[in-house]
Amino acid sequence: DIQMTQSLSTLSASVGDRITITCRASQSVSRWLAWYQQKAGKAPKLLIYKASSLESGVPSRFSGSGSGTEFTLTISSLQPDDFATYYCQQYHSYLRTFGQGTKVEIK
Amino acid sequence: EVQLVESGGGLVQPGGSLRLSCAASGFTFTTYSMNWVRQAPGKGLEWVSYISSSSSSIYYADSVKGRFTVSRDNAKSSLYLVMNSLRAEDTAVYYCARDARDGDFDYWGQGTLVTVSS
Questions:
Q1: Which of A31, A32, B72, B107 could staple A51 via S-S, CB 3.0–4.6 A?
Q2: What is the pLDDT of residue B13?
Q3: A91 touches chain B (CB under 8 A)
Q4: Nearest chain A residue to B52, by CA
Q5: Eight-class DSSP state of A94
């Protein structure tokens, strides 16, 4: 199985900060990578697909980049609604796998 | 409006069985692959199973292979997960999720809680 690793489990930041969350795959997943946002008690929400494509309705302050084994999710100016947990997910393999999540909390 | 509504969760003893359902509406169910994803209390997301639109392709995570069976009824726009030989580590909220394009998940249900405990 392809293992997905998010290096930070928690990231502390302030409103207005630019933040970057990283995700590493144990083998190349090309650009078959998605990012999700999850708030407590809610289902995940798709933000980015195919590494850098913005899902419809998602604010443009979210962006994704990377290919192969290294990926990043960037929030250009953190808003109060963005404090949540973020997961990467690969879909290069039919055995989909998620990263363990990065919680963005208020500094 | 796309809606996915899970049901069937509850408390079950170790070694027991449970059948989850996911009722889909607001889209042409027959043209989409579907997935089950679970989340143990306080933990991250774990993909569980995939079924293609025609049920011709089915995949499972190693952690549930041989114990869980996914199926769908396109006439009823419904997805199912039969879970046998349940273990404490299967305790989680189970979500159904629609395959958006190539394996990213664009719509999720609200989840149904499965608790495996004596």
A1: A31
A2: 98
A3: yes
A4: A94
A5: S
Paired tokens of B48:
């569980």
**Which band of pLDDT confidence, cut at 50, 70 and 90, is reported for residue A12?**
very high
Residue B117: name the closest of B87, B81, B93, B95 by CA: B87
Q: What CA–CA distances, in Å, run from B71 to A5, B47, B88, B92?
A: 31, 16, 23, 20
Share of chain A above pLDDT 90, in %: 98
> Which tokens is B76 given?
């009823």
Give, in degrees to the nearest 5, the angle at Cα A28 between A61 and B66. Answer: 105
| A43 contacts chain B (CB < 8 A) | yes
A34 reaches B (C-beta below 8 A): yes
The Cα–Cα gap between A10 and A90 comes to 21
- Asked if the C-beta of B3 comes within 8 angstroms of chain A's C-beta atoms, the answer is no
Residue type for position B93:
V
B42 to chain A: closest CA residue: A40
Q: In which residue are the tokens 């170790």 written? A: B14
User: Which chain A residue lies closest to B109 (C-alpha atoms)?
Assistant: A43
